[in-house]
Design brief:
Helices cover 37% and strands 13% of the residues. The protein is built from ten helices and nine strands. Strands 1, 2, 3, 4, 5, 6, 7, 8 and 9 form a nine-stranded mixed sheet that branches. The chain is globular, with a radius of gyration of 20 Å. 38% of the residues are buried.
Protein backbone atom coordinates (compact mmCIF):
# COMPACT_ATOMS: atom_id res chain seq x y z
CA UNK A 1 0.00 0.00 0.00
CA UNK A 2 1.33 3.40 -0.93
CA UNK A 3 1.20 6.45 1.30
CA UNK A 4 2.27 10.06 0.96
CA UNK A 5 5.19 10.90 3.19
CA UNK A 6 5.04 14.17 5.13
CA UNK A 7 7.77 16.74 4.56
CA UNK A 8 9.88 15.75 7.57
CA UNK A 9 10.04 12.07 6.57
CA UNK A 10 10.97 12.89 2.97
CA UNK A 11 13.86 15.07 4.13
CA UNK A 12 15.04 12.38 6.54
CA UNK A 13 15.39 9.91 3.65
CA UNK A 14 17.45 12.35 1.56
CA UNK A 15 21.09 12.09 2.63
CA UNK A 16 21.95 15.12 0.49
CA UNK A 17 19.25 17.28 2.08
CA UNK A 18 20.47 20.65 3.37
CA UNK A 19 19.06 21.32 6.85
CA UNK A 20 17.23 24.62 6.39
CA UNK A 21 17.12 25.39 10.11
CA UNK A 22 19.54 24.81 12.97
CA UNK A 23 17.83 25.30 16.31
CA UNK A 24 19.90 26.50 19.28
CA UNK A 25 21.01 23.74 21.65
CA UNK A 26 19.88 24.63 25.16
CA UNK A 27 22.94 23.35 26.97
CA UNK A 28 25.49 24.72 24.50
CA UNK A 29 24.55 28.05 22.90
CA UNK A 30 25.56 30.42 25.72
CA UNK A 31 28.23 28.15 27.21
CA UNK A 32 30.07 27.98 23.90
CA UNK A 33 29.62 31.72 23.35
CA UNK A 34 31.22 32.47 26.72
CA UNK A 35 34.15 30.21 25.87
CA UNK A 36 34.62 31.87 22.46
CA UNK A 37 34.53 35.35 24.00
CA UNK A 38 37.28 34.37 26.43
CA UNK A 39 39.28 32.92 23.55
CA UNK A 40 39.00 36.17 21.59
CA UNK A 41 39.56 38.64 24.45
CA UNK A 42 43.38 38.48 24.94
CA UNK A 43 45.08 41.09 22.79
CA UNK A 44 41.82 42.50 21.43
CA UNK A 45 41.31 46.28 21.60
CA UNK A 46 38.03 45.73 23.46
CA UNK A 47 39.25 42.68 25.35
CA UNK A 48 37.87 43.90 28.68
CA UNK A 49 34.43 44.28 27.18
CA UNK A 50 34.60 40.83 25.58
CA UNK A 51 35.47 39.43 29.01
CA UNK A 52 32.47 41.20 30.54
CA UNK A 53 30.13 39.80 27.88
CA UNK A 54 31.63 36.36 28.58
CA UNK A 55 30.50 36.68 32.21
CA UNK A 56 27.11 37.77 30.92
CA UNK A 57 26.97 34.70 28.65
CA UNK A 58 27.76 32.52 31.68
CA UNK A 59 24.76 34.09 33.40
CA UNK A 60 22.60 33.46 30.32
CA UNK A 61 23.63 29.80 30.30
CA UNK A 62 22.49 29.38 33.90
CA UNK A 63 19.29 31.36 33.37
CA UNK A 64 18.33 29.35 30.28
CA UNK A 65 18.69 26.10 32.22
CA UNK A 66 16.28 27.41 34.84
CA UNK A 67 13.63 29.16 32.75
CA UNK A 68 10.59 27.93 30.91
CA UNK A 69 8.66 30.51 28.92
CA UNK A 70 5.00 30.06 27.98
CA UNK A 71 4.47 27.60 25.14
CA UNK A 72 3.23 28.88 21.79
CA UNK A 73 -0.25 27.48 21.15
CA UNK A 74 -1.03 25.26 18.19
CA UNK A 75 -3.36 27.85 16.64
CA UNK A 76 -0.57 30.40 16.50
CA UNK A 77 1.78 27.86 14.88
CA UNK A 78 -0.87 26.94 12.28
CA UNK A 79 -1.45 30.63 11.51
CA UNK A 80 2.30 31.16 11.02
CA UNK A 81 2.52 28.20 8.66
CA UNK A 82 -0.49 29.37 6.64
CA UNK A 83 0.78 32.92 6.18
CA UNK A 84 4.55 32.35 6.04
CA UNK A 85 5.39 34.32 9.18
CA UNK A 86 7.49 33.78 12.26
CA UNK A 87 5.41 32.12 15.02
CA UNK A 88 6.89 34.25 17.83
CA UNK A 89 7.59 37.45 15.89
CA UNK A 90 8.39 40.48 18.01
CA UNK A 91 5.30 42.60 18.56
CA UNK A 92 2.90 39.84 17.52
CA UNK A 93 2.67 38.09 20.90
CA UNK A 94 2.76 39.92 24.23
CA UNK A 95 5.98 39.16 26.10
CA UNK A 96 5.31 37.25 29.30
CA UNK A 97 6.51 38.91 32.55
CA UNK A 98 8.68 35.80 32.99
CA UNK A 99 11.43 37.74 31.25
CA UNK A 100 11.73 39.92 34.38
CA UNK A 101 12.65 36.83 36.38
CA UNK A 102 15.19 35.88 33.74
CA UNK A 103 16.74 39.32 34.15
CA UNK A 104 16.89 38.85 37.91
CA UNK A 105 18.63 35.46 37.50
CA UNK A 106 21.22 37.13 35.27
CA UNK A 107 21.72 39.96 37.76
CA UNK A 108 22.16 37.42 40.58
CA UNK A 109 24.99 35.77 38.68
CA UNK A 110 26.64 39.09 37.90
CA UNK A 111 26.42 40.15 41.55
CA UNK A 112 28.30 37.00 42.52
CA UNK A 113 30.97 37.39 39.83
CA UNK A 114 34.43 38.45 40.96
CA UNK A 115 36.18 41.46 39.49
CA UNK A 116 33.11 43.13 38.01
CA UNK A 117 33.75 46.89 37.54
CA UNK A 118 31.94 49.21 39.96
CA UNK A 119 29.97 51.00 37.18
CA UNK A 120 28.62 47.65 36.01
CA UNK A 121 27.55 46.74 39.54
CA UNK A 122 25.76 50.09 39.79
CA UNK A 123 23.88 49.41 36.55
CA UNK A 124 22.87 45.98 37.84
CA UNK A 125 21.61 47.51 41.10
CA UNK A 126 19.52 50.05 39.17
CA UNK A 127 18.04 47.32 36.99
CA UNK A 128 17.12 45.27 40.03
CA UNK A 129 15.21 48.25 41.41
CA UNK A 130 13.50 48.72 38.06
CA UNK A 131 12.18 45.15 38.15
CA UNK A 132 10.57 45.94 41.51
CA UNK A 133 9.41 49.52 40.91
CA UNK A 134 9.10 50.10 37.16
CA UNK A 135 8.22 46.88 35.36
CA UNK A 136 6.28 48.79 32.71
CA UNK A 137 9.33 50.94 32.02
CA UNK A 138 11.41 47.80 31.55
CA UNK A 139 8.84 46.46 29.10
CA UNK A 140 8.98 49.69 27.11
CA UNK A 141 12.78 49.52 27.06
CA UNK A 142 12.62 45.91 25.88
CA UNK A 143 10.17 46.83 23.12
CA UNK A 144 12.53 49.54 21.87
CA UNK A 145 15.48 47.14 21.84
CA UNK A 146 13.76 44.53 19.68
CA UNK A 147 12.11 47.05 17.39
CA UNK A 148 8.57 46.84 18.79
CA UNK A 149 8.49 50.46 19.93
CA UNK A 150 10.12 53.82 19.37
CA UNK A 151 11.34 54.49 22.89
CA UNK A 152 14.82 55.85 23.56
CA UNK A 153 17.49 53.21 24.14
CA UNK A 154 19.69 53.47 27.22
CA UNK A 155 23.06 52.25 25.98
CA UNK A 156 24.23 51.47 29.53
CA UNK A 157 21.44 49.02 30.35
CA UNK A 158 20.84 47.71 26.80
CA UNK A 159 23.35 44.81 26.91
CA UNK A 160 21.88 43.45 30.14
CA UNK A 161 18.28 43.76 28.98
CA UNK A 162 19.21 42.15 25.66
CA UNK A 163 20.84 39.28 27.55
CA UNK A 164 17.54 38.53 29.29
CA UNK A 165 15.54 38.91 26.07
CA UNK A 166 17.92 36.53 24.31
CA UNK A 167 17.38 33.89 26.97
CA UNK A 168 13.60 34.32 26.69
CA UNK A 169 13.66 34.03 22.87
CA UNK A 170 16.19 31.19 22.86
CA UNK A 171 14.08 29.15 25.28
CA UNK A 172 11.17 29.44 22.86
CA UNK A 173 13.33 28.66 19.82
CA UNK A 174 14.70 25.50 21.45
CA UNK A 175 11.20 24.00 21.41
CA UNK A 176 10.55 24.36 17.70
CA UNK A 177 11.51 21.95 14.96
CA UNK A 178 11.52 22.75 11.27
CA UNK A 179 8.22 20.93 10.66
CA UNK A 180 6.41 23.48 12.84
CA UNK A 181 7.74 26.46 10.91
CA UNK A 182 6.58 27.85 7.56
CA UNK A 183 8.39 26.57 4.48
CA UNK A 184 8.72 30.14 3.22
CA UNK A 185 9.19 33.15 5.49
CA UNK A 186 10.13 36.81 4.85
CA UNK A 187 13.62 37.00 3.34
CA UNK A 188 16.43 37.94 5.69
CA UNK A 189 14.38 37.54 8.88
CA UNK A 190 14.57 34.78 11.45
CA UNK A 191 11.86 32.18 10.68
CA UNK A 192 11.24 31.69 14.42
CA UNK A 193 11.17 35.19 15.95
CA UNK A 194 11.29 37.49 12.91
CA UNK A 195 14.46 39.29 14.06
CA UNK A 196 17.36 40.37 11.88
CA UNK A 197 20.52 38.27 11.69
CA UNK A 198 23.77 39.48 13.20
CA UNK A 199 26.00 37.70 10.65
CA UNK A 200 26.34 34.47 8.70
CA UNK A 201 28.55 31.41 9.08
CA UNK A 202 29.81 29.00 6.42
CA UNK A 203 29.70 25.75 8.32
CA UNK A 204 31.68 22.51 8.19
CA UNK A 205 30.71 18.91 8.88
CA UNK A 206 27.97 16.53 7.78
CA UNK A 207 25.06 17.79 5.70
CA UNK A 208 25.97 21.39 6.55
CA UNK A 209 29.42 21.21 4.94
CA UNK A 210 30.12 24.34 2.92
CA UNK A 211 26.67 25.85 3.36
CA UNK A 212 25.97 29.35 4.67
CA UNK A 213 23.61 30.02 7.58
CA UNK A 214 22.32 33.34 8.82
CA UNK A 215 22.36 33.66 12.60
CA UNK A 216 19.56 35.34 14.53
CA UNK A 217 20.75 38.06 16.91
CA UNK A 218 17.90 37.36 19.34
CA UNK A 219 16.99 33.66 19.53
CA UNK A 220 20.19 32.12 18.07
CA UNK A 221 18.32 30.16 15.39
CA UNK A 222 20.33 29.66 12.19
CA UNK A 223 18.77 29.30 8.74
CA UNK A 224 20.19 28.43 5.35
CA UNK A 225 20.74 31.10 2.70
CA UNK A 226 22.68 30.47 -0.50
CA UNK A 227 26.12 32.03 -0.76
CA UNK A 228 27.06 35.02 -2.92
CA UNK A 229 23.68 36.63 -2.36
CA UNK A 230 22.94 39.86 -0.52
CA UNK A 231 21.17 39.02 2.74
CA UNK A 232 19.48 42.43 2.68
CA UNK A 233 18.17 42.98 -0.86
CA UNK A 234 18.59 39.46 -2.40
CA UNK A 235 20.87 40.76 -5.17
CA UNK A 236 23.25 38.15 -6.61
CA UNK A 237 25.33 40.50 -8.77
CA UNK A 238 28.13 42.76 -7.64
CA UNK A 239 28.65 40.94 -4.34
CA UNK A 240 32.17 41.28 -2.96
CA UNK A 241 34.08 40.14 0.11
CA UNK A 242 36.14 42.59 2.09
CA UNK A 243 38.91 41.68 4.48
CA UNK A 244 41.70 43.34 6.42
CA UNK A 245 44.80 44.06 4.37
CA UNK A 246 48.21 44.57 5.96
CA UNK A 247 51.45 46.01 4.59
CA UNK A 248 53.39 42.76 4.79
CA UNK A 249 50.69 40.37 3.57
CA UNK A 250 48.01 40.23 0.90
CA UNK A 251 44.36 39.89 1.82
CA UNK A 252 44.20 37.77 4.96
CA UNK A 253 41.93 34.83 4.38
CA UNK A 254 40.82 34.71 7.98
CA UNK A 255 37.55 33.64 9.50
CA UNK A 256 35.96 37.08 9.23
CA UNK A 257 35.04 38.93 6.04
CA UNK A 258 32.40 41.49 5.15
CA UNK A 259 30.00 40.57 2.35
CA UNK A 260 29.21 43.86 0.58
CA UNK A 261 26.50 44.64 -1.94
CA UNK A 262 26.83 47.34 -4.59
CA UNK A 263 23.06 47.51 -5.07
CA UNK A 264 22.02 48.49 -1.54
CA UNK A 265 25.48 49.44 -0.21
CA UNK A 266 25.05 47.38 2.94
CA UNK A 267 27.16 44.59 4.40
CA UNK A 268 27.07 41.76 6.88
CA UNK A 269 30.00 39.79 8.15
CA UNK A 270 30.44 36.23 7.04
CA UNK A 271 32.54 33.83 9.12
CA UNK A 272 34.19 30.62 7.93
CA UNK A 273 34.09 27.71 10.33
CA UNK A 274 36.87 25.92 8.45
CA UNK A 275 39.23 28.73 9.50
CA UNK A 276 37.92 29.09 13.06
CA UNK A 277 35.93 26.04 14.10
CA UNK A 278 34.67 27.59 17.36
CA UNK A 279 33.34 30.72 15.66
CA UNK A 280 30.29 32.26 17.32
CA UNK A 281 28.57 34.94 15.21
CA UNK A 282 27.84 37.32 18.09
CA UNK A 283 31.21 36.88 19.81
CA UNK A 284 33.25 37.05 16.61
CA UNK A 285 31.28 40.03 15.36
CA UNK A 286 32.14 41.93 18.56
CA UNK A 287 35.79 40.98 18.26
CA UNK A 288 36.18 42.24 14.68
CA UNK A 289 35.20 45.90 14.98
CA UNK A 290 38.25 46.91 12.92
CA UNK A 291 36.54 45.35 9.92
CA UNK A 292 33.40 47.41 10.60
CA UNK A 293 35.42 50.61 10.72
CA UNK A 294 37.21 49.91 7.46
CA UNK A 295 34.13 48.77 5.55
CA UNK A 296 32.27 51.82 6.85
CA UNK A 297 35.05 54.07 5.58
CA UNK A 298 34.67 52.39 2.18
CA UNK A 299 31.07 53.63 2.02
CA UNK A 300 28.99 50.63 3.14
CA UNK A 301 26.41 50.61 5.92
CA UNK A 302 25.97 47.77 8.33
CA UNK A 303 22.70 45.93 7.57
CA UNK A 304 21.90 45.15 11.22
CA UNK A 305 23.56 45.52 14.57
CA UNK A 306 25.05 43.42 17.32
CA UNK A 307 22.83 42.99 20.41
CA UNK A 308 25.73 44.05 22.65
CA UNK A 309 26.76 47.19 20.75
CA UNK A 310 24.57 50.27 20.92
CA UNK A 311 25.06 53.92 20.14
CA UNK A 312 23.70 57.02 21.82
CA UNK A 313 21.82 59.73 19.97
CA UNK A 314 24.87 62.00 19.72
CA UNK A 315 27.37 59.29 18.77
CA UNK A 316 28.46 58.83 15.18
CA UNK A 317 29.47 55.21 15.61
CA UNK A 318 28.59 52.30 17.85
CA UNK A 319 32.21 51.23 18.06
CA UNK A 320 34.62 52.35 20.77
CA UNK A 321 35.91 55.87 20.16
CA UNK A 322 39.52 54.79 19.87
CA UNK A 323 38.73 51.95 17.44
CA UNK A 324 40.35 48.52 17.40
CA UNK A 325 43.92 48.35 16.20
CA UNK A 326 44.74 45.06 14.54
CA UNK A 327 47.46 46.13 12.16
CA UNK A 328 44.90 47.16 9.57
CA UNK A 329 46.16 49.23 6.67
CA UNK A 330 43.06 49.23 4.46
CA UNK A 331 40.33 47.24 2.84
CA UNK A 332 41.10 44.30 0.60
CA UNK A 333 38.57 42.94 -1.85
CA UNK A 334 38.14 39.48 -3.29
Amino acid sequence: MQRILPRGEIEALDHNHIPRLLAPVRGEVFRLRAARLRELAPGNAIGDYLSLIAVLADAQHIALAQCETPAVDAQRIALAQAHGMAPVAAGEIPRDPAWHQILLHILDHLDAAAGLPAPVRAICADLRLSVQDDAEGLDRAAAALVGEGAGQIDVATAPFLMAALQVYATDQACRFDSAQLPVVSPYGLCPVCGSLPVASVVRVGGQQEGYRYLCCALCSTQWHVVRVKCTTCEETRNIAYQGIETEDRALEREAARAETCESCHTYRKIFSQDKAFNVDPIADDLATLALDLLVGEAGYQRASGNPFLWQGEDEETATPESGPEQGAAGIGRE
